[in-house]
Amino acid sequence: MHVQEPLLFPSEQTSFSGDLRDANFPWNKLCFGPTFEKLKLAVFSKTWPIGAAPGGMERHASTLYHALAARGHEIHVFTVPSDRRPHSDIHEGNLHVYFAANDHGSVNCSLAFEIFNKIGTDVAFDYVHTESVSLPYWRAKMLPHVAVTWHGIWYEIMHSKLFEELFSNPNGVLPSPTTELQEAMPRLIDEIKFFSRSGPWRRRYAELGSSVKVLGALESSQLSEFYNAIDVFVNPTLRPQGLDLTLIEAMHCGKPVLTPNYPSIVGTVVVNEEFGYTFSPNVKSFVEALELVIKDGPKVLNQKGLACKEYALSMFTATKMASAYERFFLCMKNTRYCQYPLPTDC
Q1: Which PANTHER family match (predicted)?
Q2: What's the rounded Cα separation, in Å, for the pair 148 and 168?
């Protein structure tokens, strides 16, 4: 059973004192002050966003590490461009992005490590951050300081299923779950095609008539115009999400949201019914939630939208997220930073 959290706005900072490693809530609920200690971080990320290519993890990484670089930390990212085309490396102040692709467009770990070793020769990296399975275990085990974050989208779910099966079947026998993975792959491909405005899902939605418009991927400059043109943002996904950026974007624009009640969503983003509507991942519950939206009408939707915007600004800005990540890495480097509050904290 999911227990909803109370609303948390800037005027209601979480009351906490002690070791941050004992905290059972997201660190961005706290207010961290400035630090004079600077970090040298290496980041291995699956892709780096180019244009309007769909994808949440890479955009989160780009926003986060631009913000950390702006705070004075030296950031080196080893990745590939999201459009899988040749691009020059990026060097913007403290942010350095190295595109190291193999023939298939994925990260070439050997090439990335050649660059990594050259950069770390004079001054060692404080920490290496690998997003999901960007850095394979046989490489990661050779490094002294590694932080791993896991991001839940389809192909990473399949990685998880494979690892689960390998651990449960040490002899290497892969029975029925292989069939499940084989069935999941076509759905993943269909979903990617839909976000690119092609594939079977685009045709299915188009068959619903002129009231349905398939927009495909939007440029960043078009997103605010899109969100501000709607009354409620509906995300009828039938699979678990990580930190869903589309919901956060809509909330930043003051729009209420309608989304499945997966723990990963109601536990991190839509934590209160004042932010919108949730439904069980089935058609009946979805229709009931849509009917409630219509019944509530513009006045209630506007109130929920204002609550969404206030919450999003208190939790999900680049500055807020970068501040929490900064403290996380500093804590791992020096346990003094694991204590909260410090005299410099707000």
Answers
A1: GLYCOSYLTRANSFERASE
A2: 22
Q: Determine the Cα–Cα distance for residues 229 and 338; give it in Å rounded to an integer.
A: 43
CA distance 312 to 249: 8
CA distance 68 to 210: 45
Structure confidence at residue 2 (pLDDT): 35
Amino acid at 178: T
- Contacts of residue 69, defined as CB under 8 A and 6 or more positions apart, other chains included, come to 75, 92, 93, 94, 95
- Rounded Cα–Cα distance for residues 112 and 98 (Å): 8
The pLDDT value given to residue 6: 41
User: Is the model's pLDDT at 205 over the cut of 80?
Assistant: no
Mean of the per-residue pLDDT values for the chain?
83
Residue ranges of alpha helices (H) inside 5-77 are 57-70
| Per-residue pLDDT tens over the stretch 85-118 | 999 999 999 999 999 999 888 899 999 999 999 9
Cα(206)–Cα(223) distance, integer angstroms: 22
* Secondary element (H or E) of residue 189: helix 177-195
Q: Are 323 and 292 in contact (CB under 8 A)?
A: no
DSSP-based three-state secondary structure for 265: helix
pLDDT mean over 296-308: 97
Q: Token pair of 150, please?
A: 């896991």
Position 99, amino acid: F
The pLDDT, as a whole number, for residue 7 is: 43
**d(Cα 302, Cα 255) in Å, to the nearest integer?**
7
**Are 235 and 255 in contact, with CB atoms under 8 Å apart?**
no
- Residue 215 is classified by DSSP as -
Q: Give the C-alpha separation, 311 to 339, whole Å.
A: 26
pLDDT digits (tens, 9 = 90+) for 230-288: 999 999 887 766 678 889 999 999 999 999 998 878 888 899 899 999 999 899 999 99
Structural domains of the chain, ranges and CATH numbers in brackets? 35-151 (3.40.50.2000), 155-216 (no CATH), 218-315 (3.40.50.2000)
